[in-house]
Amino acid sequence: MNENKDLWITVTQAARMAEKSIDRRCRKLGISASGLEALWTLEKRGPVTAYRLAKIMAREHHSVVELVNRMRSKGQIRRDGLNLHVTDDGRGVMNTALGQGALGVFESIGKKEAMALEAAMRILGDAAKKDMGILGEE
């Protein structure tokens, strides 16, 4: 298993640095990387509850509730019972951030590498979820 230690540190540090880069770019556009992730997730997978959103985002429930409350106060997310939805304003913020290069760090890799990386990260993510006993819960 020690042959994977270089891979572990590379993946961990690259993911952390990419998230920081994305967050820096997003904040210049008036949203956090977590906020953009929440909007994207709700747009693709929603409507979902805050509990399910936290599971999908692999974040602590209380952190997602705080994020959702901030985004609701800005009119980017609305609640319908327990379910969360992206508002037109939220969709506009998301599209603006994505259209103005919030994910620019990913331009450093080509389409073929991006597809391979996405496939490998899905496998890694599923293995981690299985290890934690939450595979299928998200």
Structure in words:
- With 138 residues, the chain is mainly alpha-helical.
- It has one domain: Arc Repressor Mutant, subunit A, CATH 1.10.10.10.
- It has six helices and three strands, in the order H-H-E-H-H-E-E-H-H.
- It has a three-stranded antiparallel sheet.
- Helix 2 packs across helix 5 and helix 3 packs across helix 4.
- The model has no long low-confidence stretch (mean pLDDT 92).
Question: What are the salient characteristics of this protein?
Answer:
mainly alpha; Arc Repressor Mutant, subunit A; globular
Q: How does the SSE layout of this entry go?
A:
Blueprint: H1 5-28, H2 33-45, E1 48-49, H3 50-57, H4 61-73, E2 77-80, E3 83-86, H5 88-99, H6 111-132
Helix pairs in contact: 2-5, 3-4
Q: Could you write a compact summary of the structure shown?
A:
This protein is mainly α.
Order of helices and strands: HHEHHEEHH
| Coarse morphology | globular
Helical percent range?
Answer: 55-70%
The CATH architecture is: Orthogonal Bundle
CATH topology: Arc Repressor Mutant, subunit A
- CA radius of gyration is 16 Å
Strand order of the largest sheet: 1-3-2
Number of helices: 6
The CATH superfamily label reads Winged helix-like DNA-binding domain superfamily/Winged helix DNA-binding domain
Q: How much β-strand is present in the residues? A: 5-15%
Largest sheet composition: 3 strands, antiparallel
Per DSSP E runs of 2 or more residues, the count of β-strands stands at: 3
Question: Which stretches are low in confidence, meaning pLDDT under 50 for 5 or more residues running?
Answer: none
